[in-house]
Amino acid sequence: MAGQLGGQPIFILREGSERTRGRDAQNSNIMAAKAVAAAVRTTLGPKGMDKMLVDGLGDIVITNDGVTILKEMDIEHPAAKMVVEVSKTQDDEVGDGTTTAAVLTGELLKMSEELLDKDVHPTIIASGYRLAALKADELLQSIATDVAPDDEKMLIDIANTAMTGKGIEGSKEKLAKLCVDAVRSVAEETDGKRVVDIENIKVEKKVGGGVEDSELVSGMIIDKERVHPNMPKKVGNAKIALLSTAVELKSTEVDAEIQITSPDQLQSFLDQEEKMLRGMVDKIVDSGANVIFCQKGIDDMAQHFLAKAGVMAIRRVKKSDIGKLSKATGAKNIANLDEIEAADIGSADLVEEKKIGGGNMVFVTGCKNPMAVSLILRGGTEHVVDGLERALEDALRVVGVTIEDGKLVAGGGSPEIELSLKLREYADTLSGREQLAVSAFANSLEIIPRTLAENAGLDPIDKLVEMTSQHKEGGVHMGLDVFTGDVVDMWEAGIVEPLRVKTQAISSAAEAAVMVLRIDDVIASRGEPMPPGGGGMPPDMGGMGGMGGMEGMY
């Protein structure tokens, strides 16, 4: 990048920086975004295939969850990263529909290429896409159906739809029921609004048993065991103390040297240590606690004293678990043992150590706050349990979103076909070139039903034509049943999704596509270390006069 000044070229970019501009920059960005969309496209829908991702350390992830695939892939291209961001946003906001969002972004950009070839200006395409996205949102609201938060059948259908195609077909019904029960038990009303905080549901994985051995426990499960075999395994009417400090002697802050000259001195020294530890344990016992969960370590001698006093102790509990235990049992987190009071102690009906799979886990049940629930997921291998967790997280999130919003749309590609038809009608009402972009947006939406058909081994064109004609005759909920290959009423088939899954996917895909389209210049500087001596001029930048500080400007 250079300008002329009296015949002398002025360089303002560091040598070796790459610059792509105009149509080349757009093409390269669109190609990258399309490549990312193509990578996840085959995973869409119940008949989608899985990807096996192996990272640098040899860890394996097998999944067809769009966002997991895109996060695990080591993507370098800046425009491709934007598609990954769309998927992440979708995951954060709704939890499901991540593949849809990525595929739609790729298709919007693919359609915009044809418009760019016809010399339609990128800003015209961008404003057309924005209009279409707003209209799509409005149309979705009009075809959405209200659902009551206590309509269990509908919620189970939603959980089923979210888990379909995630490799757990056999026990889907049971897991969907677990999901709905878990979410309903943590739903609460604040200011007349229903709120579901999925963080209140603790998911624990244990390899061993079958998927159908998974269960919902009303209470907390901590994947640890008691620290000493002499401690009770089961404590009824538990009084629980939560410690974020270690039950051991601190080493001195000051470097001190103690000279011991006789065995008596050594003995008194050890006795003193023991006395201090005993004092710490006494404080815990005096507070009335008979179960302690400690975030840090517990000294061996203290373990012995606690066991003697009949206190059950669990150490090195995760900070997040301590937080959840505090919510569940009403116990306060204690940072200083001297401050421990009876008022800080929480309660539960039962704290019990049980053997699950190959190891022991501690169950805290009968908590005073019924909002605390835990799911134990079981499966034959590590990868099965991991896949199960991902499927369940999606299902928990969508059931939560449905309870919060109370609005559903049909699945199976039916909303996309309906939007596509209505957006074409809307395009005809526009007068400027924007109508070309709105039509392109309408065509892009067909990628979803088309991909569903392709992944199921059906003829995409036949199915699209069949669905479109059904929608034209007023069948708003007609979608593709990928298992039979028929176009059926999705609402009756129980294939439903939360409205937010669609609105979020379409709006964030449109925003990302617009952002990529508006880029006409990509300037990539060379990631080179600074020359020795700090921010001076690199030796090869001669002829730049007094512009030493500008090597990073672009």
Radius of gyration from CA coordinates: 30 Å
Strand content: 15-25%
Second-tier CATH architecture of the largest domain? Orthogonal Bundle
Average pLDDT confidence is 81
> Total number of β-strand segments?
23
CATH class of the largest domain: Mainly Alpha
Q: Give the overall silhouette.
A: globular
CATH superfamily caption of the largest domain: GroEL-like equatorial domain
Low-confidence stretches are 533-554
- In CATH, the topology of the largest domain is named GROEL, domain 1
* Cα separation of the termini: 9 Å
Largest sheet: 7 strands, mixed
Number of domains: 3
Number of helices: 17
Descriptive key words:
seven-stranded mixed beta sheet, GROEL, domain 2, three-stranded antiparallel beta sheet, disordered C terminus, 45% helix, alpha+beta, 3 domains, 17 helices, GROEL, domain 1, single chain, GroEL, 554 residues
Give an overview in words:
Strand 16 (346-356) and strand 17 form a beta hairpin. Helix 4 (98-117) runs antiparallel to helix 13 (434-445). This protein has 3 domains: 18-146 and 409-521, Orthogonal Bundle (GROEL, domain 1); 148-207 and 374-405, 2-Layer Sandwich (GROEL, domain 2), CATH 3.30.260; 219-369, GroEL, CATH 3.50.7. It contains 17 helices and 23 strands. Strands 11, 12, 13, 14, 15, 16 and 17 form a 7-stranded mixed sheet that branches. Strands 6-19-22 form a 3-stranded antiparallel sheet, with helices on both faces. Strands 9-18-10 form a 3-stranded mixed sheet. The chain is globular. It is 45% helix and 20% strand. The protein is α+β, with helices and mostly antiparallel strands.
